[in-house]
Amino acid sequence: MPGERPLLANRASDELSNGRDLAEEDALLTGQPTQRDGPRTWKFWRELGLFVWAVLATTLVIILAVIYQKSQDPKHTSPHPNGKRNLIFMVSDGMGPTSLSLTRSFMQYQNGEPWSRQLVIDQHMIGQSRTRSSSSLVTDSAAGATAFSCASKSYNGAISVTPDHEPCGTVLEAAKKAGYMTGLVVTTRITDATPACFAAHVNMRSEEDRIAEQMVGDYPLGRVVDLMLGGGRCHFLANTTEGSCRADDKDVISLAKSNGFNYISDRKAFDDLKGGKALEFPMLGLFSPTDIPYEIDRRNENDIYPSLDEMAEAALVALSEATKDSEKGFFLMIEGSRIDHAGHHNDPAAQVHEVLAYDKAFSTVLEFLKNDPTEGIMVSTSDHETGGLATARQLHATYPEYLWYPGALANATHSAERLDLEYKDYLETSHPSTSDKAEFVRKSISEGLGIKDFAQEEVDKLLTEPDTALYQYADMISRRSQTGWSTHGHSGADVNIYSSDPKAALALVGNHENTEVGDFLRNYLGVDVDAITEELKQKGASLNVQAADGSEVSWMGPIPEDGQRLDGQTHLASYSGDFRKRHLVHGRGCDCEH
Ligand SMILES: *[C@@H]1O[C@H](CO)[C@@H](O)[C@H](O)[C@H]1NC(C)=O
Ligand SMILES: *[C@@H]1O[C@H](CO)[C@@H](O)[C@H](O)[C@H]1NC(C)=O
User: Fold this and answer.
1) From the CB of 222, is ligand 2 less than 6 Å away?
2) 418 and 373 fall within a common domain
């Protein structure tokens, strides 16, 4: 538009100089009368009009050009040719639409809010994601996160590998290659499926020792993650060290340090990061041996573990500062990891606090995007639903009433997981008498679950079947709140997609396949993920390692025994009358395989 200005000005001066003497032109320009006598001609007035018109038109064009430029959001006219951008991808693991209904009603009950009050996340819903994997209509978190990281479907258990066990490049790896900074923030083990899928490639998700090595850079691409905050320390410690859960004596903390990582492992060191302002890259922060405790328990142990929101904020502050003079921004994945675990445990009290913690981190990300000068977006979704959660439950054979009671969730002060751990610990260390045991159980129910009307059968069952205590505690809360569950595993429900910017995330508005979320991530950053896939294949081609049994396998580890059938539409497992075959095996609902 500014280009039109000289064009108009030239035309005006051309017309003016056409067939007229210089004195007259001078007079017009300076406003002084000419020395020539005689009446002013029609030609004079015509040319004066033309000149005035030209000046006015030129001025108008300048004004319009300035207004036009001003109206452009400075964030969208980045000085960088490729457009500097930040992408924050949030994953609410195992959170289906009913988790929101449950948590919203709980929040309203607890805070005395009207029924119209929404969660923050409610106000940003843009669409839904379909979640099936290549091997099942019900995905796991590994295949779910591979759909995000690689934008392709794979089998349950796959950590960014294809159904034929080739590595697939991830959006984080491609972002790093393109000059972005990268980060992962979780409340579970950093080696768990969702974070692993962004910076590791293994054929079986259970290989968390191998995942730990890869995530600190011991794999074909070297170090690709600049920041990791979460739990899962035990997979980084040599089996000769206390607190290790590794099968071998590799010291992955030392490996990380030799690749440049700064390593921290406790609350004090986290506080020393000063909310991210004093964080030095690359950073590995592992604040718990395995998972960080559920928020319902952690809130009373705030001096030991940082919250999801605190970790997310520190990551945002540090990444923003570190990229402020860079051509590229950052890619950060933040996971509310344990919404899923509360679903596996069928523990509605633990779940509502996990979702509220996620909602808080969600608000922090929105606030960051509002204030940060760099263009950016947040997209949030789930990998799948967990538990087949229903905000209703039929307790008796008679036709049920239509209701559920959030009050029973508000009275619980601990998760079922914590009460189970305390009970098992008590049994192991105290070898109590029967009456002491009964007293302990009654106290855990009345104080831990806030349940005063417990029945003798409920106490007796905890005494005689301590192995299933986790599920029993959770069931006591679920029955009293009339919360329904259809499984201790995942379900095939569609999950919601949220974004800070529905316009920029237009491609995700409506109902989409989960791989389209993956497509969006790479497209938003404008990175070449296919080139990473090629690089992984080339550099990894002759890179074999030893499996646990001593045999030689690819760097992605052994292939699951049923791995070959886990491919494509036609090979879905088919019905085999399983409902009659298996007996319910209770136990710790949730360790590694979900
Ligand atoms: C520790 O790891 C080494 C191999 O790295 C193995 O030989 C040893 O058996 C392991 N020890 C334990 C207690 O698992
Ligand atoms: C919650 O605790 C209060 C106070 O002990 C009690 O009056 C109420 O009945 C409890 N609510 C539920 C649903 O158990």
Assistant:
1) no
2) no
Residues 152 and 196 in one domain: yes
Residue 577 lies in a domain: no
Q: How far apart are CA 389 and CA 343, in angstroms?
A: 8
Residues 348 and 315 in one domain: yes
Is 43 a domain residue? no
C-beta of residue 131 within 8 angstroms of C-beta of residue 93: no
**In a domain? residue 22:** no
Q: Are residues 160 and 253 both part of a single domain?
A: yes
> CA-CA distance, 268 to 397, in Å (whole number)?
54
Task: Kindly identify the ligand whose nearest atom is closest to the C-alpha of 241.
Answer: 1
Query: Measured between alpha carbons, how far is 208 from 218 in angstroms, rounded to an integer?
Result: 14
- For residue 91, being part of any structural domain is answered with no
Which residues, 6 or more positions from 505, have their beta carbon under 8 angstroms from its beta carbon? 126, 377, 379, 497, 499, 520
Structural domains of the chain, count? 2
Q: What pLDDT digit, counting tens, does each position of 310-345 carry?
A: 999 999 999 999 999 999 999 999 999 999 999 999
Q: What does the DSSP 8-state code read for residue 58?
A: H
Ligand 1 neighbours, Cβ below 6 Å, are 239, 248-249
The alpha carbon of 314 and the centre of ligand 1 are apart by a number of angstroms equal to 37
Residues 320 and 467 both lie in one domain: no
Confidence at residue 158, expressed as pLDDT on a 0 to 100 scale: 97
Domain range holding 171? 131-389+496-525
- Among protein residues, the one with the nearest Cα to ligand 1's atom 13 is 239
Q: Summarize the annotated binding site for Zn(2+) as residue ranges.
A: 93, 340, 383-384, 490
Query: Taking a C-beta distance cutoff of 8 angstroms, is the pair 75, 373 a contact?
Result: yes
Which tens digits make up the pLDDT trace of 144-170? 999 999 999 999 999 999 999 999 999
Ligand 2 close to Cβ of residue 411 (< 6 A) = yes
Q: Whose CA is nearest to atom 2 of ligand 1?
A: 248
- Residues annotated as catalytic (active site), given as ranges: 141
**Any idea what the CATH number is for the domain that residue 374 is in?**
3.40.720.10
3-state secondary structure of 262: strand
Instruction: Please choose from 352, 395, 405, 411 the residue to mutate so as to test ligand 2's pocket, defined by most ligand atoms within 8 A of CB.
Output: 411
What six digits make up the tokens of 175?
A: 């972002």
Among 455, 481, 507, identify where a domain stops: 481
* Residue 167 and residue 279 in one domain: yes
The pLDDT tens digits of the residues spanning 457-513 come to 999 999 999 999 999 999 999 999 999 999 999 999 999 999 999 999 999 999 999
Start-to-end CA distance of the chain, whole Å, equals: 58
d(CA 224, CA 227): 9
From 237, 241, 249, give the residue whose CB has the most ligand 1 atoms within 8 Å, as the site to mutate.
249
Q: For residue range 55-114, what is the model confidence (pLDDT) as tens digits?
A: 888 777 777 766 666 555 444 444 444 589 999 999 999 999 999 999 999 999 999 999
Q: What pTM, to 2 d.p., does this model score?
A: 0.85
Take atom 9 of ligand 1 and give the residue whose Cα is closest. Answer: 248
What is the CA 321 to chain-centroid distance, rounded? 21
Is-contact 292 230, C-beta < 8 A? yes
For residues 447 and 414, give the distance between their C-alpha atoms in angstroms, rounded to a whole number: 9
Do 284 and 158 belong together in one domain? yes
Residue nearest to atom 6 of ligand 1 (CA): 248
